[in-house]
Amino acid sequence: MSGGAGLAGYRARLLARLEELRALAESTREDRRPVELDPGRQGRLSRADALERQAIAQEGEHRRQREIARIESALARMAEGEYGWCAVCGEEIAAARLELDPATPVCVDCAARQG
Question: At what angle do helices 44-80 and 4-27 cross, to 10 degrees?
Fold first, then answer.
């Protein structure tokens, strides 16, 4: 990838997003904990609501973890000097694509072929 200024900008964006995702994961930790099934503490509908909130929070955490992995992978590619090059075909990833998603490991053509 050419252009150190662009690389520094992408790195800053990735690090900021990583920090944001980790803070969000911490703030939703309580929602993801196991739901108490003690019928004396809460009614059937309250338990159902709690289970639904837990499922939503867990799915959100799975999405966050996938995004964190993508960001960490992009940062590793930067450290190795491979950032901005398609992991599939080896061609340079267009700056417009990196601007849209700085964590992307593939060019537009390879992304389209992957579905």
Answer: 160
DSSP notation for 20-66: HHHHHHHHTHHHHSPPP--TTTS-HHHHHHHHHHHHHHHHHHHHHHH
* CATH H superfamily, domain 4-114: DksA, coiled-coil domain (1.20.120.910)
- The amino acid occupying position 71 is I
Strand-pairing partners, residue 62, are: none
User: 27-52 as b/e, with b when 16 or more CB fall inside 10 Å?
Assistant: ebeeebeebeeeeeeeeeeebeebee
d(CA 62, CA 70): 13
What is the pTM assigned to this prediction? Answer: 0.76
33: confidence class by pLDDT, cuts 50, 70, 90: low
